[in-house]
Automatic annotation (TrEMBL):
Protein's name according to its UniProt entry: ABC-type quaternary amine transporter
Residue span(s) of domain ABC transporter: 3-233
Enzyme Commission number(s) from the entry: 7.6.2.9
Pfam families in UniProt: ABC_tran, TOBE_3
NCBIfam families associated with the record: 3a0106s01
Keywords of this entry: ATP-binding, Cell membrane, Membrane, Nucleotide-binding, Sulfate transport, Translocase, Transport
GO molecular function, one term: ABC-type quaternary ammonium compound transporting activity
Enzyme class at the top of the EC tree: translocase
Organism: Rhizocola hellebori
Lineage start: Bacteria, Bacillati, Actinomycetota, Actinomycetes, Micromonosporales
Coiled-coil regions listed in the entry: none
One GO term describing the cellular component: ATP-binding cassette (ABC) transporter complex
Length: 327
C-alpha cells in the first residue's frame, strides 16, 4: 500500500475533526476524499502532507512511518485550491522553483520544466506571469510545479473549487488523463459528487470525522452502505419506506400492479434529455426520471393517474439500504 492511515484522531479544541480514521490507499491509484464541508476530508489530507499533526494514530507513506516527519521529508506534492503562485515569477520559474531550491543542475531543471510544461499544455505560456493566465491555466501550472520534484504522492485540496462549471469539467477530464500518464499516487479532496464519480478509482466518503464507506464509484453508487452515502452520491426519492434512485422507478398506466403505488402526475420538468415527473401519492411526492422517449411513449400529462414501482431489473435488497433510516 502506498499510504496507510491507521486510527488517526484529530481535535481542534472541543471539535473532533477526525475520529479514529483508518484508510488504505493503493500505490498508483487516484483516490477521492468526498464529503460535505466540515466533514474532515481536508484535515485528513493535511495530516498526510504533514501540514497538520494528528493527536493519535499513524501515517505510513510507501512503507515509511511518516507520522512525525516534517512535510519536506515526506516527498509529497501539494496543490491548493487557490494556486499559491509566485506572482512575480514567470510560469517557467514557478514550475522550476522546487528544483532550484534543491540545487538541481540547470540543464536538468530546464529539461524537466520543458517536459512538464508540454505535459500540461502550457509550453507556449512559459514566459508569462501567472496573472496573464486563465484560472484553468494557473491550476495546470500549479500541478506541474507539484510534479516537478517527482513526488511519491500528489495531494490536491479541492483543486477546481474556484473555477466555473465548464472549466471544472474540462480540468477533471484532463486530470484523469494526466494521472494515467504520470501514474503517481494521487489523493484529492472534493465535495462534488460528480467530480469524484467521474475521476476517481476509489472514493472514501467522510462525514463528521468518520469514514462512512470506501469503494469504487460503481460500488458506492449501486451499493451504498447507508442512507447518508446514498443521499450524498446522486439523486434519491422515496417510494413508501424505501429510498430509491429516481431513474430506477417506472411509471405505467395499465391495471394496477400489487407492487405499484398509485398517484397523480402533478409536475413534469424537462432538463436536457431527462424528463422529471413528480407523482403525488396519498402521503408523499415521488420523483421519477425518464428519458424523453420513455415519457412520450407513455402518453401521459399533468393531472393523469398513474402507477409507480421499482423497475423489475433493479434488485433493491442488494442495491440499497433495506429501509429508510438504515444504518
Amino acid at each position: 500500500m502506498s499510504i496507510e492511515i491507521a486510527n488517526v484522531t484529530k481535535r481542534f479544541g472541543g471539535f473532533v475533526a477526525l475520529d479514529d480514521v483508518s484508510v488504505s490507499i493503493p500505490s498508483g491509484q487516484l483516490t477521492a476524499l468526498l464529503g460535505p464541508s466540515g466533514g474532515g476530508k481536508s484535515t485528513l489530507l493535511r495530516i498526510i502532507a504533514g501540514l497538520e499533526q494528528a493527536d493519535s494514530g499513524r501515517v505510513t507513506i510507501e512503507g515509511l512511518d511518516a507520522t512525525n516527519l516534517p512535510p519536506q521529508k515526506r516527498n509529497v506534492g501539494f496543490v491548493f485550491q487557490h494556486y499559491a503562485a509566485f506572482k512575480h515569477l514567470s510560469v517557467r520559474r514557478n514550475v522550476a522553483f522546487g528544483l532550484e531550491i534543491r540545487k538541481r543542475p540547470k540543464d536538468e531543471v530546464r529539461a524537466r520544466v520543458d517536459e512538464l510544461l508540454a505535459l500540461v499544455h502550457l509550453r507556449q505560456f512559459a514566459d508569462r506571469l501567472p496573472s496573464q493566465l486563465s484560472g484553468g491555466q494557473r491550476q495546470r501550472m500549479a500541478l506541474a510545479r507539484a510534479l516537478a520534484v517527482e513526488p511519491t504522492v500528489l495531494l490536491l485540496d479541492e483543486p477546481f473549487g474556484a473555477l466555473d462549471a465548464k472549466v471544472r469539467k474540462e480540468l477533471r477530464d484532463w486530470l484523469r488523463r494526466l494521472h494515467d500518464e504520470v501514474n503517481v499516487t494521487t489523493v484529492f479532496v472534493t465535495h462534488d459528487q460528480e467530480e469524484a464519480l467521474e475521476v476517481a478509482d476509489e472514493i472514501v466518503v467522510i462525514n463528521e470525522g468518520r469514514v462512512e464507506q470506501i469503494g469504487s464509484p460503481d460500488e458506492l453508487y449501486d451499493q451504498p452502505a447507508n442512507d447518508f452515502v446514498m443521499r450524498f452520491l446522486g439523486p434519491v426519492t422515496q417510494l413508501g419506506q424505501q429510498l430509491v434512485r429516481p431513474h430506477d422507478l417506472q411509471i405505467h398506466t395499465g391495471t394496477a400492479d400489487p407492487a405499484a403505488v398509485t398517484g397523480r402526475i402533478t409536475r413534469v420538468t424537462r432538463i436536457g434529455f431527462e424528463i422529471r415527473v413528480e407523482v403525488t401519492t396519498a402521503d408523499q411526492i415521488v420523483t421519477v426520471t425518464l428519458t424523453r422517449n420513455e415519457f412520450l411513449s407513455l402518453g401521459v400529462q399533468t393531472g393523469d393517474t398513474v402507477q409507480v414501482q421499482v423497475a423489475e431489473q433493479v434488485h433493491i435488497g442488494a442495491a440499497y439500504p433495506q429501509t429508510l433510516g438504515a444504518a
